[in-house]
Specification:
The complex is a heterodimer of chains A (334) and B (68).
Chain A: E1 8-11, E2 14-17, E3 22-24, E4 32-34, E5 49-52, H1 54-64, E6 70-72, E7 78-81, E8 85-91, E9 99-105, E10 108-112, E11 134-139, H2 151-164, E12 170-173, H3 179-189, E13 196-198, H4 200-211, E14 219-221, E15 234-237, E16 254-258, H5 265-270, E17 275-277, H6 285-295, E18 299-305, H7 307-316, E19 320-323
Parallel strand pairs in A: 3-4, 4-5, 5-6, 10-11, 11-18, 12-15, 12-16, 13-14, 13-15, 16-17, 18-19
Antiparallel strand pairs in A: 1-2, 2-3, 7-8, 8-9, 9-10
Chain B: H1 20-34, H2 40-60, H3 62-67
The chains are: A alpha/beta (334), B mainly alpha (68).
């Protein structure tokens, strides 16, 4: 089959599904959007109609305080769009509610992954490998150097630091949607059932996760504690709060950060991170390349990230690839 | 020692159980990808990784290991 896919176009503001006149993760308000997940660089407010999983719509409602035009699509449910396009949302394993979008038109199957990972995550269903003709993938960590270690190993580092420092607290910078809840859930899975303390900016998203069925255990607000209460405790905050005045209320914090970028010392140093935790919600190099091999598409398109490297890998493996270089997708905090 | 400075850019050392063949294959893979990169930070990061692999390879050679 020829894969010119003239019905799918990469434009500066997103991926346009031409026959349906609908956009995927558009960076500007449009009449109709399919949204892969709730991170702000993919899910923006102001669209006339937003089609996404119920969890992503709930996250968007929390962030943008509106549900106008929200159209839920459950995993596995196929929606008939205008122009003879079918859309099916499939788990992407990135954060709660995250989805790949399978588009079918004129006998051709295209998958847009959004962001994804292949590792088990107690807060969301696992990525579903689905055959297609064109696989439109992210490439945030597409360098061979990025092999994320087992999450259990990183959680153990965190727990060891906490146990070894009863007079200090461990302050973990974690992205407010997804990473914070995953770190909490992984701590619980590792048997840590003490209270976990939150910066106020994380509270609403954690509560929403719990409302949506993801148990996170005993969570408390730093604002409700005295400095002495936090000695020997684990505290989570958004990355931006790691070094601001807020953290001065904590007892001699050990500054940690949970991010795939913690593989790179310079990134840790920039944030004064003492305990780098390589925990990512994106596929690493092995996951990206293995996924392309498993999906086995006729063509791979790369939306954002380290596209030069993944494109080169495609060439070396006799696979057709194309870099879309879409703007506006951020990866600073993962 | 072209990469001596950049090797310290990375946390999480490469697995110690990589055998000589795996190490050589990984080094070859990394070098082939390196040639395609344009972004300066990506270049620095992968250069540091290649330096790690090269250093590991040097250490794993019997003569070098015995002398060090």
């Amino acid at each position: 089959m020829a894969n010119d896919a003239s019905w799918i176009r990469a434009e500066p503001q997103g991926i346009h599904v031409v026959p349906a006149n609908i956009w995927i993760d558009p960076s500007r308000p449009v009449d109709a959007a399919l949204v892969t997940h709730g991170h702000a660089d993919h899910a923006r407010g102001g669209h006339g109609k937003t089609i996404a999983t119920p969890e992503t719509l709930a996250i968007m409602a929390l962030r943008y305080e509106t549900r106008d035009g929200a159209t839920p699509a459950a995993y596995g449910e196929t929606l008939r769009l205008p122009g003879g396009v079918d859309a099916t949302f499939l788990p992407a394993g990135h954060v709660l509610g995250s989805a790949q979008i399978l588009l079918e038109h004129a006998g051709e199957r295209v998958i847009v992954t959004g962001d994804y990972k292949r590792r088990a995550d107690p807060t969301c269903p696992a990525f579903a490998v689905t055959p297609c003709d064109i696989f439109i993938t992210e490439a945030t960590f597409a360098l061979p150097v990025f092999r994320h270690p087992p999450v259990e190993q990183e959680i153990r580092k965190l727990l060891d630091a906490q146990a070894a420092n009863p007079d200090r607290c461990v302050l973990v910078g974690a992205y407010a949607l997804g990473k914070a809840q995953r770190v909490i859930a992984e701590l619980r899975r590792a048997g840590y059932h003490e209270p976990i303390w939150l910066h106020g900016a994380l509270e609403r998203m954690c509560r929403l996760y719990e409302e949506l069925g993801v148990g996170l255990g005993d969570l408390r607000l730093v604002a409700d504690a005295g400095k002495a209460d936090l000695a020997g405790q684990i505290v989570l905050c958004p990355p931006g709060a790691l070094n601001d005045r807020w953290s001065r209320r904590l007892p001699d914090p050990i500054t940690a950060m949970a991010s795939g970028w913690m593989r790179v010392r310079q990134r840790a140093v920039q944030r004064n991170v003492e305990l780098p935790l390589v925990i990512s919600d994106h596929a690493d190099w092995d996951e990206l390349t293995a996924t392309i091999e498993e999906v086995n598409p006729a063509e791979t398109w790369i939306t954002h990230g380290r596209d030069d490297a993944l494109l080169r890998w495609c060439e070396l493996h006799q696979r057709r690839g194309r870099a879309l270089a879409l703007a506006g997708y951020e990866d600073e905090d993962d | 020692m072209r990469h001596a400075m950049s090797a310290s850019m990375l946390y999480q050392p490469i697995p110690t159980d990589l055998n000589a063949i795996d190490l050589a294959e990984e080094l070859g893979r990394a070098r082939r990808i390196f040639l395609a990169l344009n972004d300066p930070e990506d270049l620095r990061i992968l250069e540091a990784y290649i330096a790690e692999l090269e250093a590991r390879q040097m250490r794993s050679r019997p003569g070098i290991a015995a002398a060090s």
